[in-house]
Specification:
Helices cover about 50% and strands about 15% of the residues. It is built from twelve helices and eleven strands.
């Protein structure tokens, strides 16, 4: 073989090897791209600065880290997908959206269990709220499972209080007050206390404040701060009404379609987010109160013992009525909670 022929053969071999290497790289790139293309949508009706949206963003980051980017979740805040909390349960069940962050009480029509976290004056502080959640979590998970979904984690609110134009510091100041509530528990409790409550989704609150449809809102300092309530309200009464939960739930078929290692990663991300969210809510009230103070909102916390007792009296029939509706399941949960049990 001549030298020129040998050189030509070597060049040809090098070209084939280069093409083979390029082909392999392209194939690997396509495979990696296909893995990264597992995309999911995540709906949240609150704004991007809310404690819930921030917790959801933390979850998405944990999923990205644990799956090396193989699951790509897009968070849609402010109801951008057209879903409010009241729409989420069936939207997730039907896989119209894969994951949602939903105010628990809006699902009470599915099961009264979802009113548990907003039972008025049941818990004292975040630690008790978390213990109640852990006791009830298997029951929550069962309801979601029966409806083609899985429960990922809880997203707790700071304690609910009353935002208002005028100071609400006594039973008399509640009389005929046009106040927004977020579920049946609040509506019944405040009606018992003499107010004129109306249940509204979050998206409808600010428009109703602006037009005078309501003059007060039952919600947390957190929620009001995120919505700049000080443009319409000058007072916040820290009545410690409840520490309600949002539930983050996922379509079960979307979950089960993932490879086993990705399923495990997603559940680990959810576990981490549960821990993160309960720590975040502990720290939030103080920073919320500082924000309110900066904007000239007068904070009434604590309220008088007489006013607190009157509210508790108004709440009594609501708690007993819930337990009656729930039967043995509700009794078992509340007995475990009152007996100090820890799962």
């Amino acid at each position: 073989m001549s030298v020129s022929t040998l050189v030509s053969a070597i060049r040809h071999t090098h070209s084939r090897l280069a093409l083979s290497s390029l082909g392999l790289a392209l194939c690997l790139g396509i495979t990696a791209s296909a893995q990264a293309a597992t995309r999911m949508d995540f709906s949240n009706e609150y704004n991007a600065n809310s404690i819930h949206a921030q917790g959801d963003a933390y979850f998405i980051e944990q999923v990205r880290e644990l799956t090396n980017g193989e699951i790509d979740i897009t968070l849609h805040t402010g109801g951008a997908l057209g879903f409010q909390s009241g729409d989420h349960f069936y939207a997730v069940a039907d896989n119209a959206v894969q994951i949602a962050d939903t105010l628990s009480g809006t699902m009470s029509g599915i099961d009264a269990l979802f009113l548990l976290s907003s039972l008025p004056f049941l818990v004292e502080g975040v630690d008790e709220a978390r213990r109640l959640y852990e006791i009830a979590r298997p029951h929550y998970a069962e309801v979601f499972e029966e409806n083609d979904q899985i429960l990922l984690y809880a997203s707790p609110w700071p304690a609910s209080g009353i935002w208002s134009r005028d100071a609400i510091t006594s039973s008399e100041s509640l009389r005929n007050l046009k106040i927004r509530t977020f579920d049946r528990n609040g509506t019944e409790t405040l009606r018992n206390a003499g107010a004129s409550p109306v249940s509204l989704s979050w998206a409808d609150v600010v428009p109703q404040l602006a037009t005078g449809g309501i003059t007060a809102v039952l919600t947390s300092a957190e929620a009001g701060a995120n919505a700049s309530f000080w443009e319409h309200q000058q007072h916040f009464s820290g009545i410690q009404y409840a520490i309600p939960l949002n539930m983050v739930h996922m379509n079960r078929s979307a979950f089960e379609s993932l490879p086993g290692d990705q399923q495990e990663a997603l559940l680990e991300a959810a576990r981490r987010t549960d821990e993160h969210n309960w720590q975040a809510v502990r720290e939030r009230t103080q920073s919320n109160y500082a924000t309110l103070d900066e904007h000239g909102v007068t904070i009434h916390d604590p309220i008088s013992a007489d006013f607190q007792q009157a509210l508790a009296d108004a709440a009594g029939p609501v708690v007993s009525g819930w337990q009656e509706t729930m039967g043995e399941r509700g009794k078992a949960i509340l007995d475990a909670f009152h007996n100090g049990e820890t799962p």
